[in-house]
Amino acid sequence: MSLKKCAGLLLGAGFACCMLLMLFHPGSSLAAALRGLSIWWDVLFPSLFPFFVISELMLGFGVVHLLGALLDPLMRPLFNIPGTGGFVAAMGYVSGYPVGARLTAKLREQGMISRVEGERLVAATTSSDPIFLLGAVSVGFFRDASLGLTLALAHYGGGLIVGLLMAFHGRRDDAEEKAKGQQQSAVSAEGGRLRTALRAMAEARAKDGRSLGELLRGAVQSSLQLIIVVGGLVVFFNVLMELLARTGILTVLFGGIAQVLPLAGIPPELSAALGSGLFEVTIGARSAGGAALSIPLEYKAAAAAFILSWGGLSVHAQVASILNGTGLRYWPFLAARLVHALLAGGLLLLLWKPLRSMDALQGPWNALPAAAGLSPAAGLAAGLGLLAVLLAAAMLLALFAAALRGADKAGRR
Predict the structure, then answer these.
(1) How far apart are CA 157 and CA 120, in angstroms?
(2) Higher per-residue confidence, 298 vs 92
């Protein structure tokens, strides 16, 4: 019997066991499902749905194509992806998982990126959103606003390193696409990058051809379908964790993790947080923040950084469902998440003493308790503002890179 058939039988048996456990524990299953539904409705729906719709509209109007032509001089040398990846990265970092995977899949469907470029992009742009990291985790779970700076640098710094490392992924597979992209980039530079970007936007808008009403309706419909899938997976994993806890499987898992953690110099008491974070980000981060007071704060923060960067199997399932049918493989994303988690945890421990000793940097972050209670509207406004800042900074860097390249070519002549 092949490995694929064995895996299918094991999964089928596992789901059958879950069904039986739900029959034996109906009350606990219902309570867990309601908790997952509350997370989806109160947090995920208002924070993700507007970004899904906005990204669909920007694709339809050709704004992504314009930004892609402008950002190409920055994204290709650093991350070996086309300029459209800059837009995906900005949206992914601002709105959190799984927006980066969603936009990567859309670019792949439109033929704007190759398979290997898509795998690089989705691996490098999957991260936690800053509102959740700073407000919910730092202030809500750890009760320490100043922790946000260290967590943010470790998490997003680790993501940047992953993006640089993923530039080496699949270099042999996309040699032809890379040569083609360099040729197009040279043509764009000769014709004027801004003029080429505006032309790309006009061509994309003409190719789409839908009116504003049709475009808006399509964006809302596709975004609703995706947000419902995300909500269903969140509910499922909440119920699954409850069933695993009822059967004692989680206790066994936590015990196994507790045996391994001391080998890495990490307190074994964090096994429950890391084990929970293996499945779901929110539960794991909350468990890390509420761990025993005897555990040094830097280790609890490192566990939270690891969990945020890993994403949890719930996020993995969301990304896998989005990538289905696009030709993008899941294993590069899995490897990138594991590397990101290890890098984030290590960076936090490395930066802990230098940053915590710089009292001057802690002042602005102590004002974060006000941000912890952001309403959905205020959170959306903050996210859009951050998106605008990131895109503006990326475009300035891209223009600077293009100017340097042009000066270098003029000097050679």
Answers:
(1) 17
(2) 298
